[in-house]
UniProtKB/TrEMBL annotation:
CDD domains associated with the record: Ribosomal_L30 (cd01658)
Designated name of the protein: Large ribosomal subunit protein uL30
Complexes and interactors: Part of the 50S ribosomal subunit.
Ribosomal protein as UniProt keyword: yes
Family membership: Belongs to the universal ribosomal protein uL30 family.
PROSITE patterns for this protein: RIBOSOMAL_L30
Organism: Kocuria tytonis
Highest taxon, organism lineage: Bacteria
CC terms in the record's Gene Ontology section: cytosolic large ribosomal subunit
SUPFAM superfamilies on file: Ribosomal protein L30p/L7e
Residue ranges annotated for the Large ribosomal subunit protein uL30-like ferredoxin-like fold domain, each copy included: 13-63
Length: 68
């Protein structure tokens, strides 16, 4: 699964930060922190609900997503 166009299915998603937040706009940095990501290479697991999917679609160019 590549970042953009993820649907809210309720499945578990494994989100990995692949790019740094340095040089990104503040709302992108805030979104990554809300997802629980602090540094490149870090992985978190989240439910694919509407709020989480919206955040992932916002920072799709900074994260890699796969179904857990």
């Amino acid at each position: 699964m590549n970042g953009k166009r993820i649907q809210a299915t309720g499945a578990n998603l494994r989100v990995k930060q692949v790019r740094s937040m340095v040089g990104q706009k503040q709302n992108m940095r805030d979104t990554l922190r809300s997802l629980g990501l602090k540094r490149p290479g870090q992985i978190v697991e989240r439910k694919a609900d509407a709020a989480t999917v919206g955040m992932i679609n916002t920072v799709s160019h900074l994260v890699q997503v796969e179904e857990a």
